[in-house]
Design goal:
The complex is a heterodimer of chains A (about 325) and B (about 375). Chain A is an alpha+beta fold and about 325 residues long. Helix content of chain A is about 55%, strand content about 10%. In chain A, strand 4 and strand 5 form a beta hairpin. The longest helix of chain A is centred in the last third of the chain and has 30 residues. With about 375 residues, chain B is α+β, with helices and mostly antiparallel strands. The two termini of chain B are about 30 Å apart. Classes of the chains: A alpha+beta (about 325), B alpha+beta (about 375). Chains A and B meet through strand 2, helix 10, helix 12 and helix 13 of A and strand 3, helix 4, strand 6 and strand 9 of B.
Chain lengths: ~325, ~375
């Protein structure tokens, strides 16, 4: 009993009990309070600002913005402001080398320099130099990168295949032909070109020609007499449209009638034709991975922007009413 | 540049920008000299410096391959066509290059600019790796903006009959080196072979045929001085057909000038050219470089497309007199003074400034588009670095 009495009188026990009560009380209070949230002032795009945006649109594109374009200009400006303000909330400007450099530049521009750089940056901020078009753009861009945040979800063959199927049109490989040709230069044959081509064609069809024989029958050309995997557009770019159209209708393995190009006549044997096709995963794996990562980043960004927008009340004034109660654009601090 | 520092190759004075340096002031053509347009504004002189350094110090720091490019800010790589430049200028809608100021010779986006050039690389396949490898070994040619094709080889084992067969490139690699490479001297004279195709054009826009192929040689003479010379090797006044040593060429085709009103090619010129050539002045002891230049027949420069689109006809006067005096009314005129108290009215399709610039002759109405191959260098035996 004495041991118990002594224990209940112990200051250590009192200390522990009091401490426990205080801790429990604080926990209860904290749980009741809403999570800390910075105050977010409404975003207002003034009529003057809208008019400036419309003027700059006109300078750039040579025409005034349409109603839809005007609306987009206002929304874009509000979005930039949202991104900038959220970047400030997250203190993305803290220790940012580019922001620092900009502030130092501005201090030098107003003739203050040569002191401790940290001190200069502090003074620049005190002077409000950090509310700056360049810093705004920097921070808005940084915020975009934060919202895009590279996905940590794994990308496996299943995801890549699904992406390829969703974007088949972009990855489809065009049809190609591989061919061998005997070229007769208009330059060398002149008026005898057609007759010479007919004679050469008879020779080609009469025998099983070797590469050596093809070279001997052909006139010189800067490109090889064998063309591998040419698409329609590549053939058109090289020999003209009617040439490409003819070649894509040829049967495989036999020598064609003479086909004209800007250079002369060509006797063509199509050796292989591949139809338009969806490539195998292995052929386009890295391109697919890049495209999928970009797509995910875009989706993240869109989701993030929508979430941020819901945090702000946004007012976009009508520039037609410029001067009437215009509100200066003010960044939340 | 003919006249400046003694060079005589008139084709070297091509599409010059008479601004002494980027952002500098415009210099009237008659005031251009070696001070305000320095010798190293021409790549040929830098190539000559390279072999001169090599002969003095054993190292050539200027073994340059040729690339062409454009400096348009429209985000349209390869968009070098004259007809399109007349429509879009270099800076699209965001500059006044699409106004008549593009005809102002004193404007840095003006009359002396053009759609820019292109680079072609002889790559084994159309892949990034293959193209970069071709660039690294300088197996390239530049063009002034059109799309002719040219291949140039040099070697001691090239057959004089290369232009009689279809395997030009295979023979070139087997018996020599491609453009961009160096030939090490053996004491013998190398041969050079060049094969070119005209720009095939695109639907409704035929390409322009070739005028000629030239080889430009630079060398270091016995006094250590750099020299240069242009040799005609195919087409032009030499006539047509494959030019092989000992063969007499066919007579040249009479060439009508391009139709300035429609800008359609005249039909003169060569769809293809091929030649095997040997330097008649070859000295095995002299360092040298050789590159091929392929000239097209004249075609409309972009300013001609612009002026045609506005209905400017330089063979007629600026406007027509509007006058109460019937002796002057409807008379062609270049100023009010010619209208007897009336007004010289310019057609609505162009302004007096446009007429003046279109017809000033400050820049030519036509241009001979061209391609330049990377050089092939020759180093005497044992002198190579």
């Amino acid at each position: 009993v004495t041991a118990l009495r002594r224990a209940t009188l112990s200051p250590l026990l009192h200390f522990a009990l009091l401490g426990g009560v205080l801790f429990a009380g604080r926990s209860i209070l904290e749980a009741r309070r809403a999570p800390a949230s910075p105050a977010r002032e409404p975003i207002s795009i003034s009529a003057e600002r809208m008019r400036a945006l419309e003027d700059s649109f006109k300078d750039q594109w040579g025409t005034a913005p349409s109603a839809a374009q005007r609306k987009a200009l206002g929304e874009q400006a509000a979005q930039e402001e949202t991104l900038y303000r959220e970047a400030r909330v997250l203190q993305l400007d803290l220790e940012d080398g580019s922001v620092r450099r900009r502030l130092l530049e501005k201090m030098h521009a107003v003739g203050v320099g040569g002191r401790n750089e940290d001190e200069l940056v502090r003074r620049a901020i005190a002077l409000g130099f950090d509310d700056d078009a360049v810093i705004r753009r920097l921070l808005a861009e940084k915020m975009r990168l934060v919202l895009e945040r590279p996905s940590t979800e794994p990308i496996g063959d299943a995801e890549l295949t699904a992406y390829l199927e969703r974007h088949a049109a972009e990855f489809r490989k065009p049809a190609t032909v591989s061919l061998t040709q005997v070229f007769l230069a208009e330059e060398s044959h002149r008026d005898a070109l057609a007759a010479d081509a007919a004679r050469t064609l008879r020779a080609l069809r009469a025998e099983d020609v070797s590469a050596e024989r093809i070279a001997a029958l052909s006139d010189p050309a800067p490109i090889d007499s064998r063309l591998r995997a040419y698409t329609f557009l590549q053939l058109q770019g090289r020999f003209g449209k009617s040439f490409a159209e003819r070649v894509f209708t040829l049967e495989i393995g036999s020598w064609s009638e003479p086909i004209a190009s800007p250079y002369g006549l060509h006797l063509v044997r199509v050796d292989e034709r591949r139809d338009e096709r969806l490539p195998d995963l292995a052929e386009v794996r890295s391109a697919l991975r890049g495209a999928l990562e970009k797509e995910r980043a875009r989706e993240n960004l869109a989701r993030g922007l929508a979430r941020l927008r819901s945090l702000y009340e946004i007012r976009i004034e009508d520039p037609a009413q410029a001067g009437v109660g215009a509100i200066a654009l003010q960044a939340a601090r | 540049m003919p006249g400046a520092w003694g060079a005589t190759d008139e084709q070297c004075s091509f599409e010059n920008m008479n601004f002494s340096r980027l952002g500098g002031f415009w210099i009237a053509p008659e005031d251009v000299n070696a001070d305000n347009l320095p010798p190293n504004a021409y790549v040929r002189n830098t190539l000559k410096n390279g072999i001169q350094y090599e002969s003095e110090h054993g190292v050539n720091p200027f073994k340059l391959g040729f690339v062409g490019g454009l400096d348009n800010h429209n985000g349209t790589p390869g968009h070098s066509e004259e007809i399109d430049y007349a429509r879009h200028g270099a800076h699209g809608l965001q500059s006044f290059s699409v106004s008549s100021q593009i005809l102002n010779e004193k404007y840095y986006l003006g009359l002396e600019t053009n759609g820019g050039g292109l680079t072609a690389a002889w790559a084994e396949e159309n892949s990034r790796d293959a193209i970069f490898e071709a660039l690294a070994r300088r197996e390239t040619f530049a063009t002034s903006g059109t799309r002719p094709t040219v291949r140039f080889f040099g070697g001691f084992g090239l057959s004089p009959d290369m232009c009689r067969r279809g395997d030009f490139a295979a023979q070139g690699y087997a018996g020599g080196v491609p453009m961009g490479s160096t030939l090490e001297g053996t004491g013998a004279a190398p041969r050079f072979a060049v094969s070119a195709w005209m720009d095939p054009g695109w639907p409704n826009h035929p390409g322009t045929k070739l005028d000629r192929v030239q080889v430009i040689k630079g060398w270091i003479d016995a006094n250590g001085e750099a020299q240069e010379k242009v040799f005609e090797v195919a087409g032009g006044d030499l006539g047509t057909g494959p030019l092989v040593p000992g063969q007499k060429p066919l007579p040249p085709i009479a060439v009508a000038p391009v139709n300035l009103k429609t800008c359609e090619p005249s039909g003169g010129g060569h769809p293809s050219l091929c030649a095997v050539w040997q330097d008649p002045e070859f000295d095995p002891a002299q360092r040298a470089f050789y590159y091929a230049r392929v000239l097209e027949e004249p075609s409309c420069r972009w300013n001609q497309y612009y002026c045609n689109a506005r209905g400017v006809d330089c063979s007629r006067p600026l406007g027509i007199c509007g006058s109460t005096d019937p002796a002057f009314n409807d008379k062609g005129c270049n100023s009010n003074a010619e209208c007897g108290g009336g007004v010289c009215e310019t057609p609505i399709s162009y302004t007096p400034f446009e007429y003046q610039q279109c017809c000033s002759g400050l820049v030519p109405q036509t241009v001979q588009q061209r391609a330049w191959t990377s050089p092939i260098w020759y180093s005497p035996t044992g002198g190579a670095s």
